Amino acid sequence: MALNAMVAVYAERKVSAFMMDRIGPMGQGPGLHAGKWGLLQTVADAIKLLIKEDTIPQKSDKFLFKMAPFIIFIGAFLGLAAVPFSSSLQVADFNVGVFYIIAVGSIGVIGIIMAGWSSNNKWSLYGAMRSAAQIISYEIPAGLSIIVPIMMAGTMNLQTMIQFQSGSIWGILPNWIIFNNPFTLLAFFIFFISAVAET
């Protein structure tokens, strides 16, 4: 899980840097380097995060303030339960797996609002509301773009969707939904842009 997170964060940073026409993670301070091509940047960030002081505002609701980060991560980890890593490696095989992942992925918004509310500071609450509104606004086009592969496969069960994509097109391209017609490719780009903008 940690290695997956490291690779995903590194790839996201490099893709974001490419989109913003900059180099991306390469070094960590003057004279310090995060490994070749910035591969150790995520490790450096994790060490920095663990060293940071844990401060809690005096007038805050301490229980909610401490629970907010857990609520944010719960949605991400609950979503992994429906992901079929192989035909036999899946925690739960839901008939509405796609809907489940979208639903539990939205739990993070509640954690963000909790963090802003519990700090007992109006500016923190404004920031949390703005962040939640931004996340929700990007989840709408992402959710609508997921309708296209659901209609193509005729199911919301992730295991069945994977089986639908087995084989190849003309013996050259994999039979992924994205290659079936131009609308699926358009839906993919809408989802990709929404997912990158949401992070």
From TrEMBL:
Cellular component per GO, a single term: membrane
Transmembrane segments: 63-85, 97-117, 138-156, 176-197
Entries under InterPro entries matching the protein: NADH_UbQ_OxRdtase_su1/FPO, NADH_UbQ_OxRdtase_su1_CS
Molecular functions (GO terms): NADH dehydrogenase activity
Keywords attached to this entry: Membrane, Transmembrane, Transmembrane helix
Major localization class: membrane
Membrane topology: Multi-pass membrane protein
Localisation: Membrane
Designated name of the protein: NADH-quinone oxidoreductase subunit H
Organism of derivation: marine metagenome
Top-level taxonomy: unclassified sequences, metagenomes, ecological metagenomes
